Amino acid sequence: MKGLQVGDEFGQQGAAQGVDPVEARLNWYKGSPVDTKPGVINFLAQGDKLKMNRPQMGGTEFESFDSSLKRQAATAAGANSADLTGDYSEVNFSASRMLAAVPHRINERRRNDIAARFYAETFKAWLQEAIETGQIALPRGAPQFWQKPDAYCEAKWIGSGIVQPDPLKAAQATALELQLGLTTLTDSLAARGKDLEQVIAERKNELELIKEAGLPVPGTGAKTARPARANPDSVDPDGDEPLPIQRR
Fold this sequence. Notes:
Layout: E1 3-5, H1 8-16, H2 21-31, E2 49-51, H3 61-76, H4 81-85, H5 93-132, H6 149-152, H7 167-180, H8 185-191, H9 196-213
């Protein structure tokens, strides 16, 4: 409710009678207050009108003011405004990488100071027990575990990788870094939360399965490979189906 629109008629009559129009109007509404409940009949002072306004949003400056408040709140909380509001409409690839850099460095520091130390001590205790109980046999001539514990427990603990806002641009940047020798395949996979040895083993198994099935190898542009033929000696004597190929 914006308020009462005061009419001049009531004030002119009060002034003519020697009465203060402001005081007279206040006394009027003290005895007959305005009630905006539905179905209520209000009696206004002579010449006054009651106007109801709908609540509306602010002008064009409201959105910029609201965004500024959200950015300040996110900065004070140690986060970024996009994560705080869930609005990524104005965030591009470069800005998203910069926004994710700060929390990622915080996670890396916590991972190295807390998680990696816990995993290292747990692995050390397990390996020591496995060697002493004979579950793992040391090579001939190798030092005892208690002589070189750091050498036996040397490991790199890899956590989850950073989320990439644009996987295509991230892959292109990684390929360019590898081509220029600015990084290694081990570090690139570790940044994605993967281990080089596991990736190579998985790719090897996949390539073997793909070749056995006669399918094209992804990324090579190779044609469909021919499936292995069964030799004449591997035919089932009781039927037409060939027996499984025995690999040597």
